[in-house]
C-alpha cells in the first residue's frame, strides 16, 4: 500500500514553493499526498525563522506535530526549512521526537522545477530566484539562503506553459528580490525580458510580481506593466523606512529622494497602480523625529497596501549589536500609531473604487455571496471583494460593479462573466 504524507508550509510564498518541490519529490517516490494531518506516514513541517513571531509560530507547529505523532496520527515527522537551517543543534537537543531535520532546499537554477501545487487551482507561485546579496543589516535571509541565484528563463517559461495548460488564471513571480533577476546568470537584469515573454503566454490571465527592491527595480519593468494589460497593476516594493539616517543604518542603498522619485515615476506611468510596501518601526536608533518623518511619508504616498512590522532583533545580523535598541513598549506604541494611520489611508484609497467595474477572480463561496480578488490584491496579504451573484464559477474572472468600500475590502455585484 502506498505511503501517505502531508505537509505544513509556514512563512512566505517562497517557502511554499519549496514545500511544493518537497511534496513533488515525495510524490515521485510513490507517496500519496493528504491534506489532512491524520493517519499519515510522514508529516513535513517547512518552517520559517525570519523574525521572532515566525520562529514562535514554527515552534508551536512543531509541538503540535509531536503531539500528532504521540497520538499515532503521524508515524514520522520531518522538520525542514529556515528554523533547522538556523538552529539545528538547539532543535536536536530540544525535540528528540523529531525523526529528521532538513535545512533550506538547495535551489537549482536549471532543470525541473515541477512542484505539487499547494495553492488553489487558479493561481500559482513561480520562484524565479533564490538567495539575496543585498545584506540589509536586520535581515537573516542572506545567511540562510546564500547569495543571489537566478533561474534560467527557459526553465521558468516551461513551468509557466505547464501551468497555463492546467488552467491557471494567475501566475505570481517570487524571489527574495525579483528586481535583480538575471544579474548573476546573464550579467544583466533580465526581468523585463522575462515578463514580456510571460505576458505573451498568459494572454488574458494575470501575471503578478512580488518582492521588488527600490534600489534594483528598473524603470523598464514599469513600462512593461504599463504596456501589458494582463500584468497586474500592482507593485510590491518594500521600502522599510524613509529617514536617510535609518536607511543607512539598515544597509539599504536607496535614499528618500530615490524612493520618492521612483514612486512618482510608477504613479505617472501606471496611474491606477496598487503600491504595496512594508515598513519597519522601532529600528535601533530610530528617534521620534525619524518616526514622524515615516508617518508623514505614509500620508504623502498613501500606499494602497502596507505591511507594518516592529523591528525584530535577530542574532547573527549586524543590527543585533547596534546601540539604541528601542524598548518593546515604545515599539508597540509606534506600531499602533502607524497601523491606525494606514487604516484611515486605506479606507480613503478604497473609496476611489465605488461605482467602478472591476475584473474580479472569484476564489471562494460563502453561504449567499462569493469572495474574490482584483488585480490590486495579492493572495493572503491584501483585501478581498465580497460579490453577490448566482452560480459563479470558482477560479473564473467576472466583471463586478463595486457598490461599497471598506478599510481593506470591497463589496459588489456581478455584471458579466469573462472568458
Ligand atoms: S532585500 Fe530582503 S531578503 Fe535581501 S537582505 Fe534585504 S530584507 Fe533580506
Task: Give a written overview of the molecule.
The structure is a single chain. With 419 residues, the chain is an alpha/beta fold. It has 3 domains: 4-101, Methylthiotransferase, N-terminal domain (Rossmann fold, 3-Layer(aba) Sandwich), CATH 3.40.50; 123-351, pyruvate-formate lyase- activating enzyme, CATH 3.80.30.20; 357-418, Nucleic acid-binding proteins (OB fold (Dihydrolipoamide Acetyltransferase, E2P)). The chain contains 12 helices and 18 strands. It has helices spanning 13-28, 52-70, 82-94, 141-145, 153-165, 183-186, 191-202, 219-227, 244-249, 256-269, 288-301, 328-351, and strands at residues 4-9, 32-33, 40-47, 74-81, 100-101, 123-127, 129-130, 149-150, 170-174, 206-209, 234-236, 274-281, 305-310, 357-365, 370-373, 385-388, 397-405, 410-417. It has a 5-stranded parallel β-sheet, with helices on both faces. Strands 14-15-16-18-17 form a 5-stranded mixed barrel. The protein has a 3-stranded parallel β-sheet with strand order 6-9-10. Strand 4, helix 3 (82-94) and strand 5 form a beta-alpha-beta unit. The protein binds iron/sulfur cluster. The site of iron/sulfur cluster has 10 residues, from helix 4.
